[in-house]
Design brief:
With 421 residues, the protein is of the alpha+beta class. The chain starts with a strand and ends with a helix. The protein has 17 helices and 11 strands. The protein folds into 2 domains: 2-204, Cytochrome Bc1 Complex, Chain A, domain 1 (2-Layer Sandwich); 226-420, Cytochrome Bc1 Complex, Chain A, domain 1. Helix content is 46%, strand content 19%. A 6-stranded mixed β-sheet has the order 1-2-6-3-5-4, with helices on both faces. A 5-stranded mixed β-sheet has the order 7-11-8-10-9, sandwiched between helices.
Length: 421
């Protein structure tokens, strides 16, 4: 059972007890990410996440890594568009040690300039690596067009010139603004009770976290469309499609999940069967959903060869046309429901997955994640719900299309014009 406590300063604790395991997963979730950045400080959320582990007055960066490994723990962090998470997973008998260490790092990192200089070089290499990842480029270019004019249009890593310019004071100012207790959720899952978790926070977090208030602005709802291309001499072609869709907490999220599975998630999905199995046009094709506070997209990704570019694009358009005309059959919908229910139940076997689900949901909504409720909502989806969603969302004229690949493969063609027609 999921339990939560909101303390007087706004800090939220969310827990779920699993007495049959010997591990505990902990995540410190902060409502900070590139979606709240501007052109000048784009990349500061990711930069802050990286340098958080570079040392305190008590421990060096090496000490931090060594201690977590001495405790037998896995630890790391990640930054997204509207959230940053610092986490570890350990055996239950090492929980106090690991929690004390992560709390110490989170509230007492010193951000020494020499350590920041070292880490900025690492981040620049990470940015350079993206230039060799056509799929990442494709999604970044898609976001630029779909969310144009908002923080969501910016990359999580930020531009190299920003990363090279960030100083200690920039990190401290950003943390003062965003790393406030009312913008932080601590998610703990595993062999621990809610009362034991409260005791950990009272000992290691509440004396340090203060009473600051976050004043952030979420990106407004936007619905860009059209065509964006990035020409580079990759041997493969990458195409991504995005349809403006629902936000994170929309009541139709299960409907979207069912549509996504049937169209392009499972190996029995329409796009996989037609584009790969029947026509042999692609190596990889799938659908995905990105959801934020006020925005969301339903996406399709295609990886193919230059010679199959237009045939694959036509095949996607044809399958969407069939979907618009005929919808999904009951057999497909029922198969998707079974798979989605199974995936939710499978996730209970992984404490880190449960911690992430609970932490993200509470951070985004202020409520407790209810798995049983979500399963019930999946079961309640009807074919008429799916048809209504398709009619509203799958509108080719509202889509954004991104292309990454050689100029010679594309020529002067505009994939959006071909798609929208």
């Amino acid at each position: 059972m999921v339990k939560s406590t909101r303390f007087e300063n706004g800090l939220t604790l969310v827990t779920e007890t699993f007495g049959g395991v010997r591990s505990v997963s902990v995540g410190f979730w902060v409502g900070a990410g590139s979606g709240f950045e501007n052109e000048k400080n784009n990349g500061i959320s990711h930069f802050t996440e990286h340098v958080m582990f570079k040392g305190t007055e008590k421990y060096s960066a090496y000490d931090i890594a060594r201690l977590f490994e001495d405790y037998g723990a896995n630890f790391n962090a990640f930054t997204a568009k509207e959230a940053t998470c610092y986490y570890f997973k350990c055996i239950d008998e090492k929980l106090n040690d690991c929690f004390e260490l992560l709390s110490h790092i989170f509230y007492e990192s010193t951000f020494a300039e020499d350590e920041l200089d070292k880490e900025r070089k690492v981040i620049v290499e990470e940015i350079n690596m993206v230039e060799d990842e056509p799929e990442d480029i494709c999604y970044d270019k898609l976001a630029e067009r779909v969310y144009a004019g908002t923080g969501l249009a910016r990359t999580i890593l930020g531009p190299i010139e920003n990363v090279l310019s960030f100083k200690r004071k920039d990190v401290l100012e950003y943390m003062e603004k965003m790393y406030t207790p009312d913008n932080t959720v601590i998610s703990i899952v595993g062999n621990i009770t809610h009362e034991q978790a409260i005791a950990l926070l009272e000992k290691y977090v509440l004396p340090k976290c203060g009473n600051g208030k976050c004043r952030k602005t979420f990106s407004p709802n936007v619905q860009g469309n059209g065509f964006v291309k990035y020409k580079k001499d990759f041997e493969q072609v990458n195409i991504a499609y995005a349809f403006p869709s629902i936000s994170f907490d929309d009541e139709r999220k299960e409907v979207q999940a069912i549509l996504s599975f049937c169209l392009g998630v499972g190996m029995s999905s329409r796009l996989f069967q037609v584009l790969r199995e029947q026509k042999g046009l692609v190596y990889n094709v799938y659908t995905s959903n990105s959801t934020y506070k006020n925005n969301g997209v339903f996406g399709i990704y295609v990886n193919t060869s230059g010679k199959n570019l237009f045939a694959a694009a036509d095949a996607v358009r044809d399958e969407l046309s069939k979907l618009q005309k005929h919808g999904l059959c009951d057999e497909e919908i029922n198969r998707a429901k079974t798979q989605l229910r199974s995936n939710l139940l499978f996730s209970l076997e992984n404490m880190s997955s449960v911690m992430n689900a609970n932490g993200k949901y509470t951070l985004y909504t202020g409520r407790e994640f209810d798995l049983d409720k979500q399963i019930s909502e999946i079961d309640r989806v009807k074919s008429t719900d799916v048809s209504a969603f398709i009619n509203e969302i799958i509108r080719t004229e509202k889509a954004t299309v991104a292309y990454v690949g050689k100029e010679s493969f594309l020529g002067d063609e505009n994939l959006y014009d071909k798609f929208a027609k």
